[in-house]
Design goal:
This protein is α+β, with helices and mostly antiparallel strands and 260 residues long. Helix content is 17%, strand content 40%. Strands 1, 2, 3, 5, 6, 8, 13, 14, 15 and 17 form a ten-stranded antiparallel sheet that branches. The chain has a seven-stranded antiparallel sheet with strand order 4-7-16-9-10-11-12, with no helix packed on it. Helix 1 packs antiparallel against helix 2. It starts with a helix and ends with a helix.
């Protein structure tokens, strides 16, 4: 039994080290329409995001993406940006969306996904900027803000629609980090925070969280939205290692108890 305990301790210790050393992360290095568009935690080039756009109300409105920093500090530094613009009236701008599928598979209990997020102005009444966690059929959890108010970020999930996420007001050119942690089967906790404050809430979701979408929807001129530093911790394989080890330990313990 002592050997089994030593094996489990070694296994969990190794998993902890792997988690610390091999956190899945992404840093943008180019337009999200490029290939590659960033690097992983080992500085290997990766192609993570796929961009789609809608054109706007007429030929003089549109949307797109680019690499750079459109405004001064504080900011995310050089990151990739989604933008929309309109030249024939407020609310007529196009929309830009960027999607990624988590390389390690659907998030499991105990995992956290986070991303840096920064925004500028949004046209009322329909301009929106934010991000969604995706299940197999669409948006499972959305965190966003609407141009023209209300002047707070909202969240939508399987249990609520457009709920106030907290006291954090409109963060014009002030970057913050949004993170989601899977806390149980179909449950999560979330935090959005920066130097100006914190929104935090809990909720429920349907399906499996398999990816993320970020968006600038009908934002209008000057609505550039930047994203960077996608991370998922702990690494997906590490959780399986620990759980597998504990299952083995339980089996071995039951065998040892029957022998005695």
């Amino acid at each position: 039994m002592n050997k089994i305990l030593l094996f489990i301790v070694s296994l969990v210790s190794a998993a902890s080290l792997a988690s610390a050393a091999n956190n899945v992360s992404y840093t943008a290095t180019a337009d999200p329409n490029s290939s590659p568009d960033g690097v992983d935690q080992s500085s290997n080039p990766v192609d993570v995001w796929t961009v789609t756009t809608t054109p706007g109300a007429s030929g003089v409105d549109g949307s797109g993406s680019y690499w750079g920093s459109p405004f001064g500090p504080p900011n995310l530094g050089n990151a990739w940006q989604l933008y929309s613009y309109q030249n024939d009236g407020v609310g007529n701008g196009g929309s830009a969306f960027a999607n990624t599928t988590f390389a390690g598979g659907a998030l499991t209990i105990g995992q956290t996904v986070s991303i840096g997020f920064e925004m500028r102005a949004l046209d009322p009444p329909n301009g929106q900027a934010g991000l969604s966690l995706l299940n197999g059929s669409g948006n499972a959890i959305t965190f966003a803000i609407i141009g023209g108010g209300p002047n707070h970020y909202y969240y939508t999930d399987s249990g609520t629609n457009n709920a106030n996420a907290g006291p954090l007001g409109y963060q014009y050119q002030s970057p913050f980090v949004v993170s989601f942690t899977v806390t149980g089967p179909g449950t999560y906790s979330a935090i959005a925070s920066n130097v100006n404050g914190t929104d935090s809430w809990t909720g429920t979701f349907s399906g499996s969280l398999v990816g993320m979408q970020v968006f600038d929807s009908k934002g209008g001129n000057g609505s550039d939205v930047g994203f960077n530093n996608l991370a998922i911790v702990p690494e997906p394989g590490t959780l399986g290692l620990v759980v597998g080890g504990l299952l083995f330990f339980g089996y071995a313990f039951r065998r040892g108890a029957r022998r005695s």
